[in-house]
Amino acid sequence: MTAIERSSTVAVVGAGTMGQGIAQVALLAGHPVLIYDIDGDLARDGRDRVRERVERLVVKGRLGRAEADGAIGRIEAAHDLAALAGAGLVVEAVVEDAAVKRALFASLEEVVSPDALLATNTSSLSVTEIAAGLAHPGRFLGLHFFNPAPLLPLVEVVSGSATDPAAAESAYRTALSWGKTPVRCADTPGFIVNRIARPFYAEAFAVYEEQGADPATIDAVLRESGGFAMGPFALTDLIGQDVNEAVTRSVWESFFRSPKFTPSLAQRRLVQSGRLGRKSGQGWFPYGRSGPDAVEPLPHTAAPEKAPEKVTFVGDLGPAAALAELAREAGIEVGATEHGGPYVLLPGEGQLVLADGKTSVEFTDVVYFDLAFDYRDATRIALSVSADTSERTLAEAVGLFQKLGKKVSVIGDVPGMIVARTVAMLIDLAADAVARGVADARDIDTAMRLGVNYPAGPLAWHERLGQDWAYDLLHHLDQRCPGGRYAPSLALFRLGYAAGDEGQAG
Predict the structure, then answer these.
(1) Binning pLDDT at 50, 70 and 90, where does residue 504 land?
(2) Do 213 and 300 contact (CB within 8 A), yes or no?
(3) Whether 208 contacts 177, CB under 8 Å
(4) Model pTM?
(5) Which tens digits make up the pLDDT trace of 426-459?
(6) Fold for domain 196-299+418-499?
(7) CATH class for the region spanning 9-187
(8) Catalytic residue list
(9) Which fold has domain 310-411?
(10) Cβ contacts of residue 84 below 8 Å, gap of 6+?
(11) How would residue 497 be classed by pLDDT, with cut points 50, 70 and 90?
(12) Do domains 9-187 and 196-299+418-499 have the same CATH topology?
């Protein structure tokens, strides 16, 4: 099935920010657009705001005068639902309430033609539930745009249990023709992005609750070592703590309170206290303050230490193998042995070990270092020590990374550290989603790169790290933090065998 015709009218119900954005996308793709709201003044205001945005595109040189005039003439405010009768596609962007949405679509069914597509822009509700009671649920689906819709390319095309594959394909082709990057997704709590992104927030909050590090340090490590565009503390302050926590709680409840999606008590306390982030002036961080009392929270950064003159790489460090070359380039003498390890042997006989889900207190004189997306480009590395780690070993570890041009943050003895446990959990949820038919691996990776700006899709990251890396780390974490949250999924276990592990029954 093909995209709907350019001559076909697109109707948007709900004239708020998201509705205006979707209307603008359809309008600039060449469709006649009707924007409707139960409040007629809001519908007219929404229409006018879209026209103003089109005009601004002309001023910025992004749109020609003739094209803008044509677009401005194609958008109108609808005075009632009956005016949407000729629409080929209706996209709903009203309040996130299933009962409200069901009633709306029941009314729309009585108005639009039998072959018109009906779509909800819900980000958290079940498409299948909203479609319940429709006479023709086959033409109903989810079209989840990301805010701001005119700028962000991703659209999740969500098929409910009754959605006709032809309707989903038409919606997919339509989004593609609008210049968007659509991904196909089954109707599951959180769809792709809001389901798989939960550990990005949850693991950071858990490290904080475990007294591993402060919010500014955790954010800095995820940005400067993990390659993420923003840290979860700053990002949830931007989103709104109430909004982010509501999505987390909705996914958790929808999965029957699975420990994989358990909300954060620390975030709950923020919401309860009214510290909702930027919009309230205080969240994890303070906002809007000026003068001598204004203090910007800074990440913990270790004081300078002398770099060791020689280190020995023992065994294969896998994802951190690039450190050997970086050390040589920095003028450090590098020895190597294939037997034992994997770790970096420091001059004082202490060991530097890549985060593996264990803790340094379990070993004699061990410093753990965190995962980096790219050790050459990373500008900060986190180190984890216990009370038993010698001062010399810690100083040598700090000095080594500083010699490589990295800032160093020393955190508590947290199993899996920060980046490593976050990435392992993202990989696990992504693998599980593929195995359950939520979406294919390519669409999941595309959604996570474009929807939340991750440096790589979780499954592409899995390929880079090695087929057993995430499974082994989560297995160790699960032993130290039992309860099911870190238990690696069967899908992740199977990925290791699919990569070439062999076994024999009997």
Answers:
(1) very low
(2) yes
(3) no
(4) 0.94
(5) 999 999 999 999 999 999 999 999 999 999 999 9
(6) N-(1-d-carboxylethyl)-l-norvaline Dehydrogenase; domain 2 (1.10.1040)
(7) alpha beta
(8) 123, 144, 156, 194
(9) Rossmann fold (3.40.50)
(10) 11, 13, 34, 36, 78, 90, 108, 111, 112
(11) low
(12) no
